[in-house]
Amino acid sequence: MKKVLSRVALLLPFTVVPLESRMLSRIFGAILVGISMLAIPTPVSANHVPAVIPNQGEPELDTPIKKIPRPIIGALRAPLRELPQIENFEVVGHDMIPNPNDIRPRGRNGGIAIQDDCLYVANRLTRRSGTGAHFGNTELPPEIAIIDIADPKQPRTVGHFSTILGSNNREIRTIQERNTLIVLNVGTVDNLAIYDVTNCRSPVLTRTIDFGADEGHEFFVWRDPNNLRRFLIYVSHSGVEPGLRVYEVMSPPHGTVNNVPVATFTLAPAVPRNEPTDPDRYRDDHFVFTNKPTSQTNSLHSMSVSENGKRVYMANSQAGYFILDSSRLAAGLPCIPNTVTVDETSNLDPNLCLRKINPDPGARYDQTPPFGGIHHSIYPVPGRPGPFGNPQYAWRSACSCPGLRQTSLSISAIVLMYGCGHSQYSTMA
Question: How much is the pTM?
Answer without folding.
Answer: 0.76
